[in-house]
Amino acid sequence: MTVRTTWTGPKELLEQAELILTELIDPPVDAASLVRLDDASVEAADAPWGLHAYTEDPIPANALGMLPQELGPPVREDLEDRDWVAHALEGLGVVKSGCFVLFGSHDAEKASKMDGIKLQIEANRAFGTGHHPTTHACLDMLSDMAGLPVKKILDLGTGSGVLAIAARKLWPDAVIVATDIDEPSIPIAAENAEINDAPGIIWEVAEGTASAAIADNAPFDLVIANILAGPLIELAPDIRAVTADGGRVILAGLLDEQSDRVEAAYADQGLDLAEKRGTDRWPLLHLKEGRA
After folding, report:
1. What domain of life (predicted)?
2. N or C: which end of the chain has fewer CB within 10 A?
3. What is the pLDDT of residue 83?
4. Residue extents of the structural domains in the chain
């Protein structure tokens, strides 16, 4: 049996809930799908949004308590036997992020007709299909950095591996290390790399920068960390330590109200804000190591 739990409300709150359900609770939900709901009584621009979460068992009360309380109680349904997770993932569609076109195998034909570097990323429990604003912003940032002479790249919290794979497409000769604290994510990311013909990425399960692969290849010209504000602040000294002089850091996964604290933590380490982009709710911080 599959349980579908549904919330309705503002898109920004549902995006926050989606990140919590797929990244913070243990175990994460099997799949989450953010969709615009059909409602003939409202104008399209004001149409409500819905978040469907699919699990084998009901989501525990303590996990539900982590979600934005403004959303109110969800609606729970016990669904008939069918692959509802696959059904949810098929609804994600094709995403254009910077110079990249992200798609699942079910949308391969549609993606083939679009201009851009194609990345086939299957949605699953490993975070990073390009549908979340944080992943989208990172891909957009990488696209704009494509001409920079980057030789070593670190992707902390790689999830599905999408950012490391995108980096390989832009810098085919760079050393790329990609790590994640979530052990099941690493084989998923490695499989995605193989599907996308992105060879030579060094994958490793690691907590923060405590990694043999990171130690062996540091310092890095570019560090990418699309995780959460708390870990980003905690890791500021460690990320600074593995960033090359004159290097760049891309931080995402933080909320707008957390941006000042994250920026300050890195300014204390000599990493200054070069650019802020993303959405009003989900900013991206591009930091520059300015030490000579």
Report:
1. Bacteria
2. C
3. 55
4. 2-90, 126-289
Task: Give 136-162 pLDDT, tens digit per residue.
Answer: 899 999 999 999 999 999 999 998 899
Instruction: Report helix, strand or coil for 258.
Output: helix
What values do phi and psi take at 117, rounded to 5?
Answer: -80, 120
Give the span between the Cα atoms of 152 and 218, in whole angstroms. Answer: 8
pLDDT-above-90 percentage for the chain: 49
Strands 202-205 and 175-180: parallel
What fold is seen in the domain 2-90? Alpha-Beta Plaits (3.30.70)
Residue positions counted in the chain: 292
Q: Strand 243-252 and strand 283-289: pairing?
A: antiparallel
The sign of the torsion formed by the CA atoms of 114, 116, 117, 123 equals: negative
pLDDT of 290 above 70 = no
Q: Taking Cα atoms as reference points, which of 97, 44, 46, 54 lies closest to residue 74?
A: 54
Contact 162, 226 (CB under 8 A): no
- Enumerate residues 6+ apart whose C-beta is below 8 A from 40: none
16: left (phi over 0), alpha (psi -120 to 50) or beta: alpha
- What does the pLDDT read at residue 236? 98
Distances (CA, A) of 126 to 159, 182, 201, 249: 5, 8, 17, 22
Q: Which tokens belong to 38? A: 């059909």
Which of 14, 8, 81 is closest to 39 using CA atoms? Answer: 8
Pick the CATH number of 126-289 from 3.10.450.50, 3.20.10.10, 3.40.50.150, 3.40.50.300: 3.40.50.150
